[in-house]
Amino acid sequence: MKPNRLGTAAAIAAALVAGAVVLGAPEKLMDPAKLTAKAPETFKARFETSKGTIVVEVHREWSPHGADRFYNLVKNGYFDGVKFFRAVPNFVVQWGIHGDPAIATKWLQAKVPDDPVKQSNKRGFVTYAMGGPNSRSVQLFINLVDNSRLDSMGFAPFGQVTDGMDVVDKLYNGYGEGLTKLQGRIAEEGNAFLEKNYPQLDAITKATIE
Question: What predicted TM-score, i.e. pTM, was given to this entire model?
């Protein structure tokens, strides 16, 4: 029996609209060691999301290692299709685990050195999540309120939302902290797991350097 080509094409199109990664891991994202370009001193990243557009302005002097990693992730399409899996009112919105497990596993293991904290975790500032010294990789959060208590814990902001905080505030937060303890499973099963079990999560459709 011949495959239904029309049905297959329709299924792929539907999956792409849903933000799923269906075409395999882009080769350029399979080796984090090759994506180490130095970021401009100041640049903007534009995130098209399921709720609207968010623009982040990055200042490399605030966090050089963090800014360089972020620049390479955005420039090479890492965030396309990524879900905002943690949105906690009056705290943070977090994302960064790639929807393709093959990519997620490699990048979560690709750590960057810590940077001194030069800016405060105020509302709208963007920072890497971390679990101890030199543990930053690809997970980021936007502060929804003044979280300056995080400064002394080593969380170093590298950028600030300059347009679209109203969009950030609207990202789906009904799951709260529910997915925080499932980050390992998210990495192992990708967007397929999230779309099946947490279908209301918002996602990034496209991230670009402006």
Answer: 0.87
